[in-house]
Structure formats: structure tokens, C-alpha cells
Structure prediction request, 246 residues.
Amino acid sequence: MNIRFTYLAMLISLLTFAATTEAVAGDGERDSIPESAYEYGYPNPFALGVHVGTTGVGLHIYQPLGNHFGLRLGGSFMPFRTSIVGNYGNRDVRSDVSAKANNVSLLVGWAPFAQQRGFFRTFNIQVGGAYFFDLSGKLESRLVDGYQYGDINVHPDRVGTITTHVNWKETVNPYAGIGWSNIVLDSRFSVSIDLGAYYLSKPSVSMEATGLLEENVNNAPTIENNIQNYRYLPRVEVGFSYRFWK
Prediction:
């Protein structure tokens, strides 16, 4: 996963360099992006946008606060669901995985190169946080086929199902990252790209089991201890905004 994020960051940086070079090489002509990365919108009313990324899909309100700063209030909704079939101990196991990461976020961006020429002026450093009112995961596993015990074939329903719940408490989680915000397409439309991570609270684990797997619920404290250091939630997000007033 970290390798994929590294490749993505390298690709975006390459595109940024290429766009900057092209803008400067234009024999002194201005490119279509305003003098300041935040010129469009300030001091006029906000822009409304949509976004999609690793923390879900949602809506946001974006307001420039001057030539170098911008404020973004957003809400994201992520219902994730998938099924995985794996082989463990020569037995096929079906796992149904679901996750939620519903949140409201508030981020402040600082564009240190806002008054430079070229695409790189939209680069910004972001800090803020998000209130996750539902951040949880669920893993439900069961055998695909029966369990053979001597001459007896035990049906998967008899073997049972084991369900693991992972939950983070409802709280505000700090965020830090970088991005390319307010990339102006014209006087009304803009694009944003964000890369960063939330720092989460320690997760809690609970388990439920049926059939022959009932005693496996005793493993919940061990699983909770093993994942207590996994507290970073990556955020890779692309957004589109529309400004209503010129």
C-alpha cells in the first residue's frame, strides 16, 4: 500500500514539474491561471464541490481567505463492502468485509508559492481535523465447504461463523497533508488533489462466534493488541468545485 502511494506522489510531482515548465516557456505570455492561486473567489462567496477518495464520497464548501490561505468544510460518506475467498490450512474460507468512515472535516490550506507562475502555485500544506461519527469495520468469516472429521462431514453451518468488529470512538481526529488546491479550469470550475493522513484513536475489537468456533472469541484481546499501532488513515482525494459568483 505504501509503495502505491509513493508511485502516486511521484506521478503527481512529475506532472506538476511538466506543467510548470510549460507555463514558464511561453515567451512571457501569461497562462490561464490567475495571478494568485486563490484569486478567483476572494473576497467573493464560496465554491461548492464534490469529492471522492479513500475516505469516501461527499460534498464540500471551499472559501479562499486571501492570496495564500483557503478554508474547506466537507462531509464524507463511505459504505464499503466486499467478499474475499482465501485458502487457510487447505480449507476455503469466505470473508465478508464491510467498513464505514463517515465524517465531517475542516481543513485550512496554506499556499506558500501562490504568487508564482505556473501550476505549482496551487501547491499547499494542509492541517485540520475530522469528526468521525461512524468509523468501524466488520469481518465475517465461514468455511465454504464442510469440515471432514474422519468419516463425518460437518456442514459449514455447524462449524459456525466468526465475526470480528473493529471500532474507533467518536472523536475529532487531527489531519496533516499536502495538496494541489483550487487548480483553476476557468472562472468558475476548479480541481483539487489531496494527499495526507488522519491520526486515529486506538481501535477496540470485539468478536462473536457460533457453532464450533465459539471459543475463538477469546482471541479478541490479542487482535486488539496487535492492531493498536495501526492508527493512520490515509486520505487520497480528488475534488471538483464550482463557484457561483464571479
Remarks:
- Residues 202 and 230 are 8 Å apart (CA to CA).
- The radius of gyration is 24 Å.
- The chain has a mean pLDDT of 81.
- The first helix runs from residue 2 to 24.
